[in-house]
């Protein structure tokens, strides 16, 4: 099966299935990060050339299943996966992470785009902890009055007049997040609703310090069969495997 990855879940899934003799997996990365954490299991790096390219890849590789384990903000590849699965007649399962929900004490402003997030910071200059992707920083050029602390896996030039980049890779611990927010005198956080445990501590830290958070909602992706645990994927694959055996026996 082909696993669309770029996430911890994708890597864990390929490692889990790699140990099961019934399955052969190929984990696919877009190739965005300079130092990806690559698994010991088979993998490839680079785009497919749109939905048609992915459909061709599935057909030519004679894949029996496609698992979309990409990040909830990677909307284009998830969209392409739905189209490619339909065009190549490949069963598709999306491995999702449940979105974070605001808890008592959270001070979230919900927005639906990076542009809206930049506006939600308001006019007076603030010290902003910006945990969005490198490609999404451009939206904050419309709010250049703020001091930004940008956290990213790889160093890059944020092209903002008052920004510093802090390179780090999660998971992050609550005590470290608390120390960071206090040391940097952060006034407000901007976060995507990624839903992963690995980066949840910054929201707990914001709650503890009563700091506001501008929370960017997930982009829309077309419906697909979904599950939110590795066990769910294994059950789905067992079902596919049993169905295929039944068909062969028939
Ligand atoms: P995107 O906007 O949905 O996809 C843009 C293009 O990148 C796709 O059309 C596809 O190119 C290629 N692509 C994306 N994921 C791929 C994969 N797993 N294997 C092969 N090609 C892939 O994606 P994105 O937001 O740039 O994210 C890129 C990757 O980083 C994803 O795999 C995602 O899981 C990971 N990631 C994203 C975020 C985020 O916040 N967006 C955060 C953490 C990790 P073609 O059309 O040429 O096939």
Verbal overview:
It contains seven helices and twelve strands. The two termini are 23 Å apart. The model has no long low-confidence stretch (mean pLDDT 95). Strand 10 (188-192), helix 6 and strand 11 (212-216) form a beta-alpha-beta unit. With 250 residues, it is of the alpha/beta class. It is 32% helix and 20% strand. Helix 2 crosses helix 3 and helix 5 packs across helix 6. The protein has helices spanning 8-18, 50-60, 75-88, 114-120, 174-183, 201-208, 230-249; strands spanning 2-4, 26-29, 43-45, 66-68, 92-95, 107-111, 127-131, 147-152, 163-167, 188-192, 212-216, 226-227. It is elongated. The longest helix is centred in the C-terminal third of the chain and has 20 residues, at 230-249. NADP nicotinamide-adenine-dinucleotide phosphate (NAP) binds next to strand 2, helix 2 and helix 3. NADP nicotinamide-adenine-dinucleotide phosphate binds at residues 4-7, 28-30, 32, 47-50, 53-54, 70-71, 73-77, 80, 133, 192.
């Amino acid at each position: 099966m082909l696993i669309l990855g770029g996430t911890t879940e994708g890597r864990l899934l390929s490692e889990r299935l790699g140990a099961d003799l019934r399955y052969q997996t190929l984990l696919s990365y877009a190739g965005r990060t300079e130092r990806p954490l690559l698994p010991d299991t088979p993998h490839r790096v680079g785009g497919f050339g749109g939905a048609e390219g992915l459909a061709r890849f599935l057909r030519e590789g004679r894949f029996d299943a496609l698992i979309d384990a990409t990040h909830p903000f990677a909307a284009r590849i998830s969209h392409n996966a739905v189209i490619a699965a339909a065009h190549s007649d490949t069963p598709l399962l999306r491995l999702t992470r449940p979105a974070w929900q605001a808890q008592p004490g959270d001070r979230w402003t919900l927005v639906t785009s990076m542009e809206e997030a930049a506006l939600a910071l308001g006019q007076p200059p603030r010290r902003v902890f910006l945990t969005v992707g490198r490609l999404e920083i451009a939206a904050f050029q419309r709010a250049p009055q703020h001091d930004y602390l940008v956290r990213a896996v790889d160093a890059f030039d944020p092209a903002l007049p008052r920004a510093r980049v802090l390179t780090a890779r999660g998971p992050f611990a609550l005590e470290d997040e608390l120390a960071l927010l206090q040391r940097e005198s952060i006034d407000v956080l901007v976060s995507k609703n990624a839903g992963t445990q690995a980066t949840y501590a910054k929201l707990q830290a914001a709650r503890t310090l009563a700091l506001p958070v501008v929370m960017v909602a997930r982009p829309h992706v077309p419906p697909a069969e979904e599950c939110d645990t590795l066990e769910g994927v294994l059950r789905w694959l067992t079902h596919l495997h049993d169905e295929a055996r039944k068909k062969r026996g028939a």
